[in-house]
Specification:
Pfam families: Glyco_hydro_53. This protein has 368 residues and is an alpha/beta fold. Helix content is 36%, strand content 15%. The protein has 12 helices and 12 strands. Strands 1-4-5-6-9-10-11-12 form an 8-stranded parallel β-barrel. A two-stranded antiparallel ribbon has the order 2-3. Helix 6 runs parallel beside helix 7.
């Protein structure tokens, strides 16, 4: 153990000396406290009960992503049933636990009371009557208040997402854009710049992530970040969602990553969300058992195959400095926390046992 620890320490020194940024491996575990409160038991590959954060650490994870909504009590019931509950107190308590366990923290700020994604970027209830020209001030004040609350508790994020999946903008309709058009970018970039300004002021050591969800469409991805460059937005990391069922093949992702490296050579790239199905059981959104099986079978082996191929590809790109599994903590064993299942987590919904894909979710040491 001493030799291994010394080797890791020397490797870290060598990476710093060579100017190589740290690589992150982790997941967004934002619903974990709710599962634990429901009495959910997590198990390792052999069925032995485990403490999730300790187990993730054992599996080589070094970072955790936590989402934050403005006021989730105003979320529609359907979204509350999907796990929307992460208010400031919830996110702060989970983040403190994450940092105390030795993980780096990626704080994902949704500027909404519920999901901010490609289909909706809803202005928070308490901001509905704010004048459009003053909305950026609300973003600044809210971001500053959140980060100051974190710092007051000794919890400083290492990375901060200003917005979630914002290829088409945020705080609709005020900050809505189309990535391939030039309309309304000054408004969106003012909103983003105020959020980034708060991050720089309150947490100057944290890296800022701008997150989009069109990793399979290079033209859109390029146009979005070129517009940010035109408006001189101050951020550090290009964050991407990549799901094979919506964003094309891993090979296609590799092309996007190559293009990002040549087009934006000063930016790190992180896959801040990824996942793949292993089943469609109790899945109200699925149209059949083989939906989304274009690239991988909907099975445990198919999910593991996806992870293996993804991690091999990411290890080939020096600009990629992180990857986060979305909702790895899904575990319906012994609880009815959610009325239906997504079946994209890393634990079996029947037994609570860790799935084979989790063994594949690691960087290949010869390349990273």
């Amino acid at each position: 153990m001493r030799k291994k620890g010394l080797f890791c320490f020397l490797l870290m020194l060598a990476m710093v000396a060579n100017g190589q940024p740290r690589k992150y491996l982790g997941g967004d575990i934002s619903l974990l406290p709710s599962y634990e409160q429901a009495g959910t038991v997590y198990r390792d590959f052999d069925g032995k009960p485990i403490e999730p954060l300790a187990f993730f650490k054992k599996m080589g994870w070094n970072a955790i992503r936590v989402r934050l909504f403005v006021n989730p009590e105003y979320a529609p019931q359907e979204h509350k049933e999907e796990g929307v509950c992460q208010d400031l107190k919830y996110a702060l308590n989970l983040s403190k636990r994450v940092k105390d366990a030795g993980f780096d923290l990626l704080l994902d700020i949704h500027y909404s009371d519920y999901w901010a994604d490609p289909s909706k970027q809803t202005i928070p209830h308490l901001w509905e009557n704010v004048k459009p020209e003053s909305l950026s001030d609300s973003v600044y004040a809210y971001t500053s208040r959140v980060l100051s609350s974190f710092k007051a508790k000794g919890v400083v994020p290492d990375m901060i997402q200003v917005g979630n999946e914002i290829t088409f903008g945020m705080l609709w309709p005020v900050g809505r854009i189309h990535p391939m058009k030039d309309d309304n970018w000054s408004v969106l970039c003012k909103l983003l710049s105020k959020g980034c300004k708060a991050c720089r002021e309150v947490c100057p050591e944290a890296k800022i992530v701008i997150h989009t969800e069109r990793a399979g469409e290079w033209d859109m991805t390029r146009s979005f970040y070129m517009h940010l460059q035109k408006y001189c937005l101050d951020y550090d990391i290009i964050g991407l969602s990549y799901y094979p069922m919506w964003h094309n093949s891993v090979k296609n992702l590799g092309t996007t990553l190559n293009n990002l490296e040549s087009t934006f050579p000063g930016k790190e790239v992180m896959i801040v969300e990824t996942a793949a199905y292993y089943s469609h059981e109790n899945d109200k959104w699925a149209t059949g058992p083989d939906q989304y099986a274009e690239f991988y079978p909907i099975s445990l082996a198919g999910q593991a195959s996806f992870v293996r191929e993804l991690m091999n590809e990411l290890s080939n790109h020096k600009n990629v400095t992180g990857v986060f599994w979305w909702f790895p903590e899904e575990n319906a064993c012994g609880n009815d926390l959610l009325p239906c299942w997504l079946n994209r987590g890393l634990f079996d919904n029947h037994t609570g046992k860790a799935l084979p894909a989790l063994k594949e979710f690691r960087y290949h040491s010869t390349k990273s």
